[in-house]
Amino acid sequence: MRSSTSSQFVAVASIAAELNAVLQVAKEISLAAANAKAIAFRAGEKAKGFKPITDFINELAKDTMAVVNRINADTLNLYRLTVAEQRMREANRHFDLAVAAAAGARHADSLLRVRETARQQAEACHGEFSIHVDDLLNQLSGILYPARAARVIAANSRIEASQAGEYLQSLQAVAESVDRAAQIINEKVSKCRGALVAISAGYAQGNQGQL
Fold first, then answer.
1. What is the b/e burial string over 35-63, where b = at least 16 CB atoms within 10 angstroms of the residue's CB?
2. What is the pTM of this model?
3. Which of 81, 125, 175, 210 could link 157 by a cystine bridge, Cβ 3.0 to 4.6 Å?
4. CA-angle at 130, arms to 206 and 183, nearest 5°
């Protein structure tokens, strides 16, 4: 059980690190949108079609940051649940030893009741943990949509940039940075989802026969 819980700690920490990377990339997208807007303003009519695209890119970045911040809060709850369950499992282990040592003693039944209460608390923690994992998986799916949309926008940005004359390279660089950032977000989110699925599977397997 300890190795299983240790794996959970590592996985949750890994998810938090990946989400922090997503947050930083989303901030970079927002900055790229601001730079593109300034370039489009200087380009005037040559980049007329690029201006609304920069607003859309910025909105996508803000939406992504908002979702990541919410998920970070839920990831912290997942960490707390992992800590709580570790303590409960350790308490159960001590109760099992105490019950075994008190076998045949006059008030041994009272230990059985306390042990059962601790076991029920561990079951409740198990259920809450599973709910949080499922919720996080759904929220992570929500990040993938703006990442895909950003790639489509990047493609459209390249087309619009081709009309911008001497500003072509600057605006194309923005399109490339947005596309690259969207790919990174997709990779990071996929890693988070993989870690959550692994946690869920390992958690279920590690708890079979222990509840």
1. bbbebbeebeebbebbeebbeebbebbbb
2. 0.74
3. 175
4. 100
In the chain, % of residues over pLDDT 90: 0
The tally of domains found in the chain comes to: 1
Q: Are 92 and 115 in contact (CB under 8 A)?
A: yes
What's the domain range around 136? Answer: 2-207
Indicate if the pLDDT at residue 194 is higher than 60: yes
User: Radius of gyration (Cα) for the chain, nearest Å?
Assistant: 25
Helix (H) or strand (E) holding 41: helix 2-43
Name the helix (H) or strand (E) containing 201.
helix 168-207
Question: How far apart (Å, rounded) are the C-alpha atoms in residues 130 and 138?
Answer: 13
Q: Which of 7-11, 45-49, 172-176 has the highest mean pLDDT?
A: 172-176
Contacts of 104 (CB under 8 A, 6+ apart): none
What is the identity of the amino acid at 115? R
Distances (CA, A) of 16 to 51, 206, 207: 34, 23, 24
What value does the mean pLDDT take over residues 31-42? 84
| Short-list 177, 174, 186, CA closest to 147 | 186
